[in-house]
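Handoff note, outgoing to incoming analyst
You'll be picking up this chain. Sequence as last confirmed:
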Amino acid sequence: MPNVRSISPLSLASCLTAVFLTGCEKPKPPPPASEPSSASQPAPPSANPSFARLKGKWQRADGDYVLHIRDVLPGGRIDAAYLNPNPIHVSKAEASANGPNPKVFVELNDVNYPGCTYALTYNPATDQLAGIYFQASMGQRFEVVFQRLP
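Most recent structure output, in case you need it:
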């Protein structure tokens, strides 16, 4: 029978401890994610430069109806008010650039105006907004023109 050398329990424990400690080193945490620089972040969409011409107070030629376009925000959303002569709630107002001249869509939602809309186009030659007013409760469409107020 071959000569088997016995290992003392103390030696065995020391050897296992050494193996355990070298094999169980704490992993290093990953480096913190660096913040992207502002130069690499995409800029928010800017408003179309032609939309600046839409800002102002516009009065309908056939009455005291006033559309006040306070601002056109990036993405085309319009900050607007509508008066007849009292304020009427504007539930939606947007500008778009389909074609050579900017377009304005306004939806009203108030007493006597539920779902009434304006679909207008800016005419730079006359400095007017012209298009169709949809009177929802009557189901009728009317051609309208808004002139810029000073």
